[in-house]
# Entry
Amino acid sequence: MAATDKEDQVDGGQQDNELHSTRLLSVVDVERTFQAGGAPLRVLKGLHMELRHGQLVMLRGRSGSGKTTLLNCLGGLDTPSKGEIWFNGKPVHQLNDNERTHIRRKEMGFIFQAFALMPLLSAWENVELSLRMAGTPRSEWKERVAYCLELVGLEKRMHHRPFELSGGEQQRVAIAKAIAHKPILLLADEPTAELDSNMSAQIMAVFQNIIRTEQVTICMTTHDPTILEVADHVYEMVDGKFV
Ligand SMILES: Nc1ncnc2c1ncn2[C@@H]1O[C@H](COP(=O)(O)OP(=O)(O)OP(=O)(O)O)[C@@H](O)[C@H]1O
# Structure
């Protein structure tokens, strides 16, 4: 099931071991079949996986292997055709739309194309928007927005709009936006796509930093073999299955 697992090698001490020992998310025999055109298309074919608190987990695979479909199921944006997804003790596969939306807003953060930055809003306003969406009290916004933008190294670009920022800087705003409401799980679809290797390494350093400082767990998809080494665990996907 696992291609690599660094968990046992990491000398993280007792505190890290305790953090890692708690299961945040479990995927049990998940399948997803789409009815596209005539014949059913089986995209996920009986997957098992788990995420533990504080891990950085990567889903790796070729285009079309099913990574985004799985990530959508993990985030409650799509529902498996079969199998179970348990998140923080809750059966996501059995929840209705409202319940899943609530979990998404309160407990998850997304770095997906579909949740990209609002082009007319500044970095500050973009991050503030996610606090508004999550129902965070207005009195907490200012401090939290400043903190998150500093955390991703954008303290000097807070009032720039997306078109005034580089690709890597825009991705940092997206990270700040995704973590502002203090999610426990951050899902990221190809967060380093379109960035050069230097920028990608910086984004991964930001991810490692927020895992430590924000107690978040990260699951991301990637094509990029050069960033795999920072993962605690890599799931390799081929044609809807882990190998
Ligand atoms: N809503 C849908 N209806 C029909 N087919 C779909 C749907 N969503 C995804 N697929 C199909 O499922 C397969 C896997 O798609 P998915 O986006 O999960 O792959 P991926 O591994 O994320 O690829 P990429 O790296 O290119 O993003 C593809 O063949 C795609 O056409």
